[in-house]
What does this fold into?
Amino acid sequence: MEGQDILYEVRDKVTIITFNLPDKLNALTGKQYLLLAKLIERADKEDTILTLIQSTGRYFSAGANIADKSLSNVATEELFSHEYWLNNFVSRNVYLADLFHNHSKVLAAALNGPVIGLSAALVSLCDLIYSIDEKKTFLLAPFSNLGLVAEGAASATLFLRLGWSKASEAILFARPIPGTDLTKLGFINKSYHETKFNSVEEFNKTVHDDLVRQFNGLYEPSILENKQLLKANRDTLINSASQREIIKGFNKWVEGVPQSRFAQLYQKDIKHKF
Ligand code: CO8
It folds into this structure.
């Protein structure tokens, strides 16, 4: 049920958005990514300081749902048409990346596990990133393995946050970047590996409470204005990367390459490199 796939709650001046598809490792269909976009837009209008994105189960998110029925139920001629991909890829991805990039609240992610694909790109647009355990977390940008190119401004954010060399490993060769490296490079603000949690929910609550403690007592309008100032540094990079990526990605779908790579991955004929 759509309403249960991604949960929404406001608590202590924090909007909490929770991926709730643990059986699918929180892989999201096109429709669910659009729901996420709408929830981020709603969170932007709340009387809050922070928006926290968290998850359930063993993965934060396995990226786009490669078994998305809206792909398999499409007539062949439509599946290779400009119209289909302009509607189902270009507009949605640009909208989603733009909402994350321009979110007016402090945007935080609590990684309960690995993050892949478009979801990894969206996490890379967050201001603050926490991990339940760096040894159980990795970031995978598998675009080169899927016949795609970077999405969600990942070609800019990974370069900015990981540096040229690691970003090249991640994006060119679709290599997972281990959480330990993500911490060393400053991508992860804090790994909670020294804390014993009985559940992911306990970890999520700890991150929420720690964040509330961090902004408590500060002058709230200044926090949000400072967020805008920090964000302004990356505006040009993000916006130009997003535009370049989307046109290249669109051309790939019209060529039909990702459709067949997704099918091969689903049938386990190809795998990601670990
Ligand atoms: N889509 C759908 N289902 C998934 C996905 C996924 N991305 N990932 C995992 N699942 C499901 C599995 O099918 C399985 O379901 P079931 O129990 O019903 O068989 C369940 O989650 C558990 O998965 P595994 O048994 O495979 O668990 P493992 O620990 O062995 O492996 C992996 C975990 C490595 C994550 C593996 O599942 C995998 O490789 N998944 C695919 C990841 C992937 O390639 N995601 C796409 C990234 S690309 C992207 O996000 C941008 C594309 C933009 C597309 C826009 C379209 C319009």
The two ends are 33 Å apart (CA to CA). The mean pLDDT is 96.
